[in-house]
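Protocol step 4 of 5: obtain the predicted structure for the target chain.
Materials: sequence only (see below). No template structures provided, no constraints applied. The aim of this step is simply to have a reference model before the mutagenesis design in step 5. Sequence pasted as it appears in the construct record:
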Amino acid sequence: MKIKSLYVSSLERCNGSLVVCVGLMQLLKTKYRKVAFFRPIIEDGTQKDNDIMTIKNHFTLNIAYTDTHVFTLSEVENRISMNKTHELYEQILMQIRKLEEQYDFILIEGIGKYLLSSTIDFDINLTIAKNISAPFISVLNANEKSVTQIIESIAIESKTIEHEGCLHFATFVNRVGSQNMEACKNHFIDSQLDYELFFLPEKKELGQPTMEEIKRALNAKYLFGEKKYLQKTVKHNKIIAMRVEHFIDFIEEKDLIITPYDRSDIIMALLSLYHSKLYPNVSGIVLTGGARMDKNIENLLNSFESLALPILSTTDDTYTTSIKVEAIKAKITVRSQNKLAMIFGMFATFVDASKIEAKLLEKSDDIVTPLMFEFNIFKRARDDKSMIVLPESFDERILKAAEITMHGNIANITLLGDELELKNRSSLLGIDISQATIINPLTSELVDTFTTEFYKLRKHKGMCMEEAKEMMIHNDTYFATMMVYMGYADGMVSGAVHTTANTVRPALQIIKTKASSSVVSSLFFMCFDSKVLVYADCAINQDPTAQELATIAIDSADSAKNFGITPKIAMLSYSTGTSGSGEDVEKIKKATQFVREKRPDLEIEGPIQYDAAIDKTIAKQKLPNSNVAGEATIFIFPDLNTGNNTYKAVRDASGAIAIGPILQGLNKPINDLSRGCIVEDIVNTIAITSIQASGN
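Step 4 output (structure tokens):
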């Protein structure tokens, strides 16, 4: 029987059931086209449920909020007290059946039993799961438990699920201390369990509140600082009332400083620490007492063009504020991108997805969604983590992408720049780059080696040793490219700030093209709702010759195949088949013939118009006997003008995600970014570069 739903629940507080749901949803979205998230019971009907909104928005689920739940907690308790439990389960089952008709799979999260009143003396989640025939996933909290206690909890939970007559699908033991992880795993290594068992480590960062959560809990006023820095997490809370020279020694990284509004000396001292490279960077300040601060201090703070230090104000006194802050329970929300990346990385490391997939007995299909494609490239990148160098570390987007990449275990990262400056800047931005390797070209011992090698490569072009050294020291892109050439990095990603020429020129001079490629070209992975297509060349070659077009087509086909896309090449033109003539059409005909002669294994059609290449109905009219028409996966554009404009027009009109440009034809992977790229674009490009480097 094919499983169409899973029910996730726990008895304990702070167990991490949302963590497990996030990890499972990431996996499910790669296997099923339409997935729903459902909570039979939510805690409160006056505001939208956090877990539902986090899953719904992060994974862009196409489901109305009203369809994601049935009852509030008070409604459930009322029905049970009136002995209307049958009505309760019937309405939940009706909603489940309705969702089953619309979706391929349903991930269900139960309500924490700790929230239920004493009038409900049974595990309502197990009862619901049994009544809707959903396999059960239990989540246990191992925080501050010994190995013996963890093992006993697993056994008790398993017996409880079996006793209730539910299908026990898996147990996730969350928040396992590092000192207990191996002992727990070893205890069950030879056990023949009927369910899957996974251990997830304790991640303290997931339990740290953000400045935004603190602002909301205190009903505080936002005074100063850029609002994006409200996503900074807080590790410690510190009440500061002593003299400046005394409190500095007590400051720690990620502190929240609570101080009265009239302590201008403390505010000024914290601003000084904020700009210093010698002291830790706090996450934010809460001013208590509610009165207005000194006008001169206000003017000073307003004069900062960019302030990465959020400053809040509350009307409560310092003691009350401290008590309230201590009581805040951190949440994972759709804005917690760093925490979500950490969850994905944790799942990739500690959860064997193949075991879950095998248990689901799902049937594969040809549909590939953008999330499926991204998940697959992340998985492949994680399988053989490459070292990717990012020369533009002065850009905030690059630093954020590096953090997500490292937390997600997607690739190892090298950043170029001054280590003290980079760590200080990232700390100010609330970005963790502690896992990155940092190299400063100005002081690196690699400069002499790189200079000598670069001189050897370019001396026939008239370059002298002094020029070579100047390039290595003062041009980060050349230094990074030489790192790839010499094997200190597996690939490079650049272009968020630099032009395409600044990225490609060093690659051509140092890395050079493959023997099989006469030209460096680019492609975009165009991720539509249910398929991924390849567009080339949309970024490099202005007016390629027939021979160059053939090379671009062949390289694109090999790239597509490497990323799981069956290559069917459409050589685009303004005419289809024999319907047109002219110099441009002849070029496409020659290019098509070159491909057929060099690679008879590839399916190719050309010349062909875009509509005939992508639309099966039109294809039947224009090229009824073609194996490519209407089913093309690779679109080769005749020139840069056509390709660049088309990919942007299609992207903007359809809402497709364009990943690229990805460079091909080089001996080692160097990839370019659009200067308008966002963090997600950079992360995707790093993952693709890692795959290109490993060749897996």
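Step 4 remarks: The domain at 5-203 is CATH 3.40.50.300 (Rossmann fold). The chain has a mean pLDDT of 89.
Proceed to step 5.
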